[in-house]
Amino acid sequence: MATQNESIADSEGVSADPLHLALSVCNGIDISKCTGPEECDIYVCKIDACLDTLEKVSPQSVELSNAIHMLDRSLNRILHRKISILTTLLSNQIIANAHTNSYVNNIFSDGGSDSESSSTSNAFHKKSKKNRRSTQKEENASKKIKQSFEYQINTSNRFANLENEQDHYENQSNLDDEMKDLDNQQGLFSHTSKTPSEINLRSFQNSQPGPSTANNSNNANKSRYVPPIYIDNPKNVPQLLDLLSEITKEKITGRMMNNDKLKIFPPTPEAHKAIQNKITQDGMKSHTYELNDEKQIKVVIRGLSKDFDTSVIISHLQNEGFAPTLCHPIRNRQSNTNFNLFVVTLPKIPKSKEIYQIEFIGRMRVTIESLRKKQSPGQCYNFQEFFYHSRLCTRNPSWNAAGIKNKINQLKYFLLDWKPDILALQETHLNPGDRLKFPNYSSYRTDRLTHRGGGTAILIRNSIDHHPTPIASTTFENTTIELHLPDSTPITISSNYRPPHGSISTLELNNIFNSNSKCIAVGDFNAKHRAWSSGTWNSNGTIIHDYICNNNLILLAPCEPTHFPNHSNNPSTLDFGILKNFSSGDANSINALSSDHNPVSFEIDINVNLPAISKIIKKTNWSKFKQIMSTSLPGNPNIQNIKDIDEAITKLNSAILTAINLASRSKLINDEVNRAIRRYIDNPKPSSNIKLTSPQEILSLLKRINPRKATGPDGIPNKALKQIPTNVITFITKICNKCLLCNYFPTIWKTAHVLMFPKPRQNRKLPGNYRPISLLSNIGKILEKIILSRLKEECHDLSIIPNEQYGFRAGHGCIHQLLRVANTVTQGFNHKFYTGGVFLDVRKAFDRMWHNGLIYKLIKFKIPNYLIVILINYLRNRTFRVKLNPTLFDIGSIKAGTPQGSILSPLLYTIYTSDFPKTNQIMNCFFADDTAILAQGSTINYIIHTLQKGLNNIEKWCTLWRVAINTDKTHAVMFRKGTSRKELNTLSFFDEDLTWDKEVKYLGLILDDKLTFRSHLKYNTEKFRAKVHLLIPLIGRRSPLTLENKLLLFKQILRPILTYAAQIWGLAAFSNRKKAQILQNKILRIIVNAP
Hints:
By secondary structure, the protein is an alpha+beta fold. The chain is extended.
């Protein structure tokens, strides 16, 4: 080596100028040409020779130090390059088999400890294994292995002597060719006699062999990785390996895994394919990984519109000589819309790579890119395992119908064994070109066209009369059919699948359950609730549970779990059925198929209907009950042991229930109401004494309309109606008279536009914080006023409206009702009586009024027939549309309640509540839906007993006529003078306790238990101050407005706040009234600019 160094020094002339020698050597290095370890070794030899020469130069100088430093940096660059090449070769060659650990230990063994060497080899083996599984992260894995090499080089000597290693490997005759190539590659590293503490990069490189020793790396690079094959539960493994060796003409090796699987190592791709064919031919259960030459090419096409026809893309590519196997748009799962992107799948052939050169498709300029690989590992959807594809798996699949293509035979035998009339499938994973056909069955399906997965289907016997009824939905997938059975109403059958992410829409469920009077919906809803599944519940479970309860539906779910996750020990029930108008059937989870989703069997008697929920009034004669019970049971029963105790309890329960039934009389109000209405409609009575309208009446109505009112759906303003001539008035008169004669209310006038106005100081992102305002046709309101005038006359003649109702009546107002309440309480104070009051809050009184109940009461009150029929027509089939700026949303139907914005609604509600329970001991107070009951007496117990009796009657009436009371906003107050330490007994109302409050707000007036009105005056003064703060720029001392305008603002806005109900709170103490007077004086001085 010294002779070689001297010759280099002489040729370069370095003795005279060492810096010149270093520059000449460094400039001659081109790292980009280093494609293999041998090129790197050539540069390393040159640099080592130059460094040995420079170390002999004396004396030391700054130029010499700079030259050595420059060569060291060049050497480090080349070493890093070589390490990168070696790690790339290693990561491509290392195979996980039975000999891997021993080989790695041998390669990285030295004079150090065995445990240290073993731990390093294990770590390296894990990195290589991870690199094989995630090929898309090859670059990152190479960097990690590179860092591992650098650590090994800088810490200790882990490289054994090449000659000793080669001798050891040659003695192992049972090693395969792949490990020999790996061994030759590792032979590039040689041993040095230095201790681990002395080792460094330079000493490591000094020990490297020349280019001739690295030629074997090319052989390692040429070898191809062939994936292993896993066989489940093999029989006679040695004989099987010999048979496979005979078929492939290769030495086939394998080893048993700890889960009863045989891992086979094919040496070549040809052997791999031959073994796969043999496994498929013999029907063995196996899975493997995909060969590189079998992978497909997937590209993305940009530049086309969302609705571009995929058949045009396929035909264009076929004309260009390509063979596309699939083409579909990419869909956004959140918005459920297509992107401007299309995915095309091509076979992996040289011609397919030319697709990137296409610039136009259908006269549209496009760009074609490779499809980005998923960051998650591949998954077999047959067995729900990762790191291999379902196409390469022949094991028993999971029965969540994930990919029905590979389960056709299983499904065929399942149909033969169980013989179901209808079979509902979810997650079929079918494409439009796939076939799903079975003998004696008709198939209907809905395939997911946007992305992989999903899809539903229904198989039904050909002997059953049926037809498909597609129903559009976005939050879940469904396939729906309709059955036509003899002597039975049509039945809707729906197979549904709800993906795990997102919320299900109840509006789309309505599309299914409103399609027929009888419906059955089954499937995988991915919904958990304790009503049908053990453990926790999710949001979809709560939505479906509430939907079932609110719509009188029947849940049909098996008692056993239906879903058994592969990676969790928490089974759940995700597959169940929902029935409409059926009695409960039977559902069982079938363990017929090895799967994570068990099939569920539903047995439903279609001839048994579910009776509608009826409001039952049961009246029990307790005297008769006592008489029956006195003779039904002995006073001293014979009880000797535990068995006798149980029998005695059973006999006691049976006797009590029997006596209640015998002593009670039940009445089904729903049946009576519906029967009466049906009788009335089926047997119409001829209308007589119809009061027609006249042009004078129409003209008087038009004069009283407000021209500033908003227009309705027809767009006709009131200002235009006030200007119409006489011929148009007579035209409208003729229309209204024909409506009265035909008992008809026009459909076009039954549509409302709903405007949404935000509530003040509320979060506008929540829809509940908006107040809806309905706009009706202004011409239609004329007919409503004509009907109202006639209905009022009938109500007055028949005395239908109770005297206690002060709302929407001429000559009655809030003050009158408040005076009535205050006078009653004051009279009680004067006579030393207690007065108890319960103030009820009716929940959405106008919006939830029962239409059939109102019609029933109109019939009972003997309202003229023509008005009843018109009102039936007026209430039914009403629609609305929400309007947001110029945008109109979908049409919705109104099933209950009086129309908002209609002048008829207040009177109809008054008629509906006219039969509110009355007693002589209780005073009813009504103002529209604001209701209060008062009881007065000399003792508190008498008042509580009387109020409780009245509340019981009110509870029965509300239940009977479907009136909802908000118990949280219902308050009870005991008006009395003086104080008492005795706690009052609570009242019970709808199974909730009503506590006694000190004050209550009724019709805008705060009534305290002693009628001091202190709280009301305090509340009014605060409200007055807040309003003054807003108006001070207009009425303040510096306001430019005139005194007359300021006083007008005061009278119209401020004074009504203070003076509201002054007739009642005027009885308050002078000290309380004085505060309001002072506040008014202050604002008046500010208005008139007085000191």
